[in-house]
Amino acid sequence: MKKPNINVEVHHVTRVEGHGNIYVNVKDGIIEKCEWNISEAPRFFEAMVAGRNWNELHHITSRICGICSIGHTLASLRATEAAMGIKISDQDLKLRKIALHAENLQSHILHLGFLVLPDLMGVGSVIPLASSNPEEVKTVLQLHRLANEMSNLLCGRTTHPQRLIPGGFSKIPSLKELKELKKKLQDSVPKLQAVAELFKSVAPKLPDFQRETEFIALTKPDEYALYDGDIASSDTGKAPASEYLAFTNEYIVPISTAKRAKHARESYMVGALARLNINFDRLSPLAKKTAGMFGLKPVCHNPFMNNIAQLVEVVHSVEDSIRLIDELEAAGLQSQPDYHQPEITVKAGHGVGAVEVPRGILFHDYTYNQKGVCTKANCVIPTNQNHGNIELDLKALLPQVLDKTEKEIELSLEMLVRAYDPCISCSTHCVRVHFV
Amino acid sequence: MKPKVAFFDFAGCEGDQLQVANLEEELLTLLGQVKVVSFREVMKEHSDNYDIAFIEGSCTRLQDEDRLKQIRKNAKIVVAIGSCATIGGINCIRNYKDLDEVRKTVYGENAKLFDTYAARPIDAVIPVDAYVHGCPIDKDEFLQVVKSLLLGKKPDIPTYPVCVECKKNENVCAFERGQFCVGPVTRAGCNSCCVNEGTVCWGCRGLVDNPNENAQKEVLIKNGLTVDDAIGKFRLYFGWQERKR
Amino acid sequence: MDEIFAETKSDPYYFEKRKSSIIIGVNIQKMSKWCFAPFMGCATIEYGYDLMLTDLGNRYAINIGSEKGEELLEKYAKNVTNALARDIQLVGQKKREIMYMSQQKFDFPPELIPELLSKSYEKSAFWENHSEKCLACGSCVLVCPTCYCFDVKDNPDLSLARGERIRTWDGCLLEDFAKIASGENFRATKPTRYRHRYFKKGKYLYDRFGFISCVGCGRCSSNCLPDIANPVSLFNDMYHQIRDKEMLATAATTPEVKIETEGNIDYVPKLATIVKKVPMTANETLFELRLNDGSELGHKPSQFVEISVFGIGEAPISLSSPPTKKGTFELCVRKVGNVTSKLHTLNVGDEVGVRGPFGTGFDADFLKGKDLLFIAGGLGIAPLRSLFNYVLDNRKDYGNVILLYGCKEPRELLFSSELLALKNRTDVEFKNTVNWCPENEEWAGNIGVITTLIPQVDFDPEKTWTIVCGPPVMYKFVIADLKAKKVPDDHIILSLERRMKCGVGKCGHCQINQIYVCKDGPVFNYSKIKGVPEAL
Question: Looking at domain B4-151, what is its CATH homologous superfamily?
Answer without folding.
Answer: NADH:ubiquinone oxidoreductase-like, 20kDa subunit (3.40.50.700)
